[in-house]
Amino acid sequence: MSNYGIDWKNVDLKDGYTRDQNFLENYTFADLIMEAEHNLREEDRTPAKILAHAKEQIDNRRAEALDILSDNIENIAAYIESQREL
What we know:
mainly alpha; 3 helices; about 60% helix; elongated
Protein backbone atom coordinates (compact mmCIF):
# COMPACT_ATOMS: atom_id res chain seq x y z
CA MET A 1 0.00 0.00 0.00
CA SER A 2 1.45 3.37 -0.88
CA ASN A 3 0.10 6.68 0.34
CA TYR A 4 2.64 9.42 -0.21
CA GLY A 5 4.61 10.22 2.91
CA ILE A 6 3.17 7.58 5.23
CA ASP A 7 5.60 5.23 6.94
CA TRP A 8 3.37 2.16 7.11
CA LYS A 9 5.81 0.43 9.47
CA ASN A 10 5.58 3.28 11.99
CA VAL A 11 2.34 5.22 11.50
CA ASP A 12 2.08 8.62 13.23
CA LEU A 13 -1.34 8.32 14.86
CA LYS A 14 -1.11 11.86 16.28
CA ASP A 15 -1.55 13.15 12.73
CA GLY A 16 -5.26 13.29 11.87
CA TYR A 17 -4.72 12.77 8.14
CA THR A 18 -2.61 9.67 8.73
CA ARG A 19 -4.98 8.35 11.38
CA ASP A 20 -7.86 8.57 8.88
CA GLN A 21 -6.09 6.47 6.22
CA ASN A 22 -7.29 2.97 5.39
CA PHE A 23 -4.92 0.20 6.37
CA LEU A 24 -7.23 -2.30 4.67
CA GLU A 25 -7.25 -1.45 0.98
CA ASN A 26 -10.66 -0.99 -0.64
CA TYR A 27 -11.77 -3.46 -3.29
CA THR A 28 -14.69 -2.46 -5.52
CA PHE A 29 -16.78 -4.23 -8.11
CA ALA A 30 -15.11 -1.94 -10.66
CA ASP A 31 -11.68 -3.16 -9.49
CA LEU A 32 -12.72 -6.79 -9.87
CA ILE A 33 -14.25 -6.24 -13.30
CA MET A 34 -11.16 -4.40 -14.55
CA GLU A 35 -8.86 -7.10 -13.19
CA ALA A 36 -10.94 -9.88 -14.74
CA GLU A 37 -11.00 -8.11 -18.10
CA HIS A 38 -7.26 -7.44 -18.10
CA ASN A 39 -5.73 -10.29 -16.09
CA LEU A 40 -7.83 -13.33 -16.96
CA ARG A 41 -7.78 -14.97 -20.34
CA GLU A 42 -11.15 -14.86 -22.08
CA GLU A 43 -11.72 -18.58 -21.55
CA ASP A 44 -10.95 -18.12 -17.82
CA ARG A 45 -13.62 -15.48 -17.24
CA THR A 46 -16.00 -17.98 -15.67
CA PRO A 47 -17.85 -17.33 -12.41
CA ALA A 48 -15.64 -19.84 -10.57
CA LYS A 49 -12.36 -18.35 -11.83
CA ILE A 50 -13.51 -14.77 -11.26
CA LEU A 51 -14.48 -15.73 -7.70
CA ALA A 52 -11.11 -17.44 -7.17
CA HIS A 53 -9.34 -14.33 -8.43
CA ALA A 54 -11.40 -12.11 -6.12
CA LYS A 55 -10.69 -14.34 -3.13
CA GLU A 56 -6.95 -14.19 -3.87
CA GLN A 57 -7.05 -10.38 -4.07
CA ILE A 58 -9.05 -10.14 -0.84
CA ASP A 59 -6.63 -12.52 0.91
CA ASN A 60 -3.69 -10.40 -0.29
CA ARG A 61 -5.30 -7.20 0.99
CA ARG A 62 -6.15 -8.86 4.30
CA ALA A 63 -2.57 -10.10 4.73
CA GLU A 64 -1.19 -6.65 3.96
CA ALA A 65 -3.60 -5.04 6.43
CA LEU A 66 -2.59 -7.50 9.15
CA ASP A 67 1.09 -6.76 8.50
CA ILE A 68 0.43 -3.02 8.85
CA LEU A 69 -1.60 -3.65 12.00
CA SER A 70 1.14 -5.83 13.50
CA ASP A 71 3.81 -3.24 12.67
CA ASN A 72 1.79 -0.54 14.41
CA ILE A 73 0.06 -2.31 17.30
CA GLU A 74 2.34 -0.64 19.88
CA ASN A 75 1.58 2.78 18.34
CA ILE A 76 -2.14 2.01 18.42
CA ALA A 77 -2.10 0.95 22.06
CA ALA A 78 -0.02 3.99 23.03
CA TYR A 79 -2.35 6.34 21.16
CA ILE A 80 -5.44 4.85 22.83
CA GLU A 81 -3.77 5.21 26.23
CA SER A 82 -2.80 8.83 25.51
CA GLN A 83 -6.40 9.67 24.64
CA ARG A 84 -7.63 8.13 27.88
CA GLU A 85 -5.34 10.42 29.83
CA LEU A 86 -6.90 13.58 28.34
